[in-house]
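Question:
Write out your own:
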Amino acid sequence: MKQIEKQASNARPWAWIPSLYFIQGLPNAVIVTLTVVLYKDFGISNAEIAFYTGLMYLPWVIKPLWSPFVDIIKSKRWWIVVMQLGLAVAMGLIALALPTKIYFAVTVGLFWFAAFTSATNDIASDGFYILSLSEHEQSKFVGIRSLFYRISMWAVQFGLIFMAGYLQTNMGCDVQQSWIYVFALLAAIFAIGTLYHYNQLPRPNKDEHRNRLNAADIVKEFGNTFVTFAKKPYLWSSLAFMLLYRLPEAQLVKMINPFLLDPVSEGGLGMTKQAVSVTYGIWGVVGLLLGGIIGGLFAARFGLKKSLQPMAWSMSLTCITFVILSQVAEPSNILINVCVFIEQFGYGFGFSAYMLYLIYFSEGEYATAHYALCTGIMAVGLMLPGMAAGWIQEQLGYQNFFIWTMICCVTTIVVASIVKVNPSFGIKKKEVEN
């Protein structure tokens, strides 16, 4: 009987973790990846694309400012449902704004609204994950949550970008029409996700409503959140890790699609949107699947401390592949697919350690708010280099730009070596026999 109950308990997270993190990653993918292709289609320059889409990441940077309110007002479950509904509305409004003459200003504003809503959903979802699972389950599923988060990004890359290109080249739609359909579909996806999570998310006892707090209590709790974070041990090495572990990726991700789509005469590969979507949608997803799953199992087996260095080194693979592709004249489809597979496997494996460390550092009374602070710091490390990436690429060209990101991988290795971790974190505790 106990074994059956244990199996049911273990199976339960699969009902909501994949969908929760798929929906969590989707607006991030739209803002980080889809907007780049969208504005490229509308004739915006690389420097402007990198700057404006990089600036859209600001809500994820400053989300710690309101994360304590998510932690102490209502439940994480409530915030998740309401914010996902807000995302459905935002995507629908973007679809309506695209045909207008002031589409750029309006869509940038709506993307900002979506980013704020998404950042709040991130706070609630990550807090819900921490409250609903044991320490070992958190380690076990960290690869799965990262996997489905990234799958959402490649659903955007493979499904939605492919859809826009297909509608333009095969269905006779112009640029505006094709993107209207894309954002209408996104609105429907978020609406379905809202209904699914309203019905399927569990109700853990720790996820309590706190409606009885008065204004003084809320202010006190808000202050305690930041004071307790500042008093955490090894704070400075931890901050360095959060800011710099993803430095190469922060720059690389902004220039991947422009590099693949730009003509050969401008240093790119001259691929079509459909070809890029197929490459990442098939080989990228396979590499990501294997890297994410193996990363989670590796961390659960050996613990976070022993996993940090191997995973930090694997992150460098994301840059090596594009150094190769930029140096080879007219690379074959096979070489492109192999490089994309390696890049995604390395990222999926290496990213597991980063996310698990944020969970580890956030442990304590204000875990949800502290995790939001950690991801806000992470967002700073993504936003600032990302905003500068377009300018750097235009100064160096694609070949030297990718070499520069490879040099930046040194910071990933260094910060992973100086951060302090409890050796037992993430390893399943042995059951004590009575």
In short: Residues 15-203+221-418 form a domain with the Growth Hormone; Chain: A; fold (CATH 1.20.1250.20). The first helix runs from residue 2 to 11.
